[in-house]
Specification:
The structure is a single chain. The protein is an alpha/beta fold. It is 63% helix and 7% strand. The chain folds into three domains: 31 residues; 96 residues, 3-Layer(aba) Sandwich (D-Maltodextrin-Binding Protein, domain 2); 192 residues, no CATH class. It is elongated. The protein starts with a helix and ends with a helix.
């Protein structure tokens, strides 16, 4: 018995290391992940406060003065002041400052300890600036109240999206490659079935599995966590379905011509982990580098996560997430057509 086990073990290992492409992905993928972490997290000291800033041109001044000159404060450029006020209410921003007005206007949450500290720093910085300029305009204060959004509440939409991503990509990308390797696709080639029909059936089958699994995960989380769900359940279901269709179709492109599971696994990791790191699943992308935020917007997962959070936390309805729905469905159709053109039975 043990000799047979050893023989299978040796044969499987030889199959792995003789596939140079698959072996290469397994070696270089961890390196790429380390580089991705280094790209997102610079080695700078961690900021202690997070302050939203509304400016006339939508960009933070290159040379900060007053409050903007303080160190260890992360300043986030804000385009939508109304949405930022909600973040102050939920402790996602410690302070919101509007530099477009004179005198300066700011919002602070009276129930936020960090907001209290940020306000003291703001007033101190304004006094210092007033002494140097000879003027003493008093900032206009707006107070807010509201409990903090727990990290578990904030991260749950992203965790659901992450589950959709992994199940969608590997559920078709890896399995179809295995079918090709085992000769299943060669047999199907002899039937009247077209590539598009085969891929469409794979999409529908995986969509049913992904949505069923997501429902179970959501129900289990609802039993264990008292998380908020302020928006439309219909909008949330349609959003995750559109996201699943998009990611399943992306997985089909990966599996269109590959012959080994190892190479498919490497490419799927190469696609999924950057999306996971840059889509705000585990941490907010606010305050990260401009390059990281630009790359983030290229990921379908980003739009899925952001829209899901708006539904569950901010109470968005179906019409509020129509742009994300159309984007994900459009990408799904484009990916499916491309996968059908690239697909080979053998």
């Amino acid at each position: 018995m043990w000799r047979r086990i050893l023989a299978i073990l040796v044969a499987r290992n030889r199959e792995f290391y003789r596939d140079r492409a698959g072996l290469g992905w397994n070696i270089f993928m961890p390196i790429l992940m380390v580089l991705a972490f280094a790209f997102i997290f610079s080695g700078e000291p961690e900021d202690q406060l997070k302050v939203g800033v509304v400016t006339p041109d939508g960009a933070l001044p290159a040379q900060g003065s007053g409050l903007l000159a303080l160190e260890y404060v992360r300043f986030v450029s804000v385009a939508d002041a109304e949405a930022a006020v909600q973040k102050v209410e939920r402790h996602q921003l410690d302070l919101l400052v509007d530099l477009r007005r004179e005198p300066l206007v700011y919002w602070v949450n009276l129930e936020s300890p960090k907001g209290y500290v940020a306000e003291r720093l703001l007033l101190w910085a304004e006094r210092q600036g007033a002494e140097g300029s000879g003027s003493n305009p008093s900032p206009e204060r707006h107070t807010l109240s509201g409990t903090a959004v727990r990290y578990a509440d904030w991260v749950l939409p992203g965790v659901l999206a992450m589950n959709v991503m992994f199940s969608s990509l590997w559920g078709v990308g890896w399995v179809i490659v295995r079918y090709r390797k085992n000769g299943v696709l060669r047999r199907l080639k002899a039937t009247p079935l077209s590539p598009f029909e085969f891929l469409a059936a794979q999409v529908l089958s995986r969509l049913l599995v992904v949505m069923s699994a997501s429902l179970v995960v959501y129900a289990g989380a609802a039993l264990l966590l008292d998380f908020p769900m302020r928006g439309s359940y219909l909008a949330l279901a349609l959003l995750y379905a559109a996201g699943a269709l998009c990611l399943i179709s992306l997985g089909l492109i990966v599996s269109a011509r590959l012959r080994t599971e190892e190479l498919a696994d490497g490419i799927l990791n190469l696609i999924s982990w950057p999306m996971l790191l840059l889509s705000g699943v585990w941490f907010s992308m606010e305050g990260t580098s401009a390059a990281a935020q630009t790359l983030s917007q290229l990921s379908p997962l980003t739009h899925l996560v952001e829209a899901a959070r708006r539904i569950m936390i901010d109470g968005a309805q179906l019409l509020d997430v129509v742009p994300e729905l159309l984007l994900l469905l459009g990408l799904a159709l484009a990916f499916l057509v491309l996968a059908a053109r690239l697909f080979r039975w053998e």
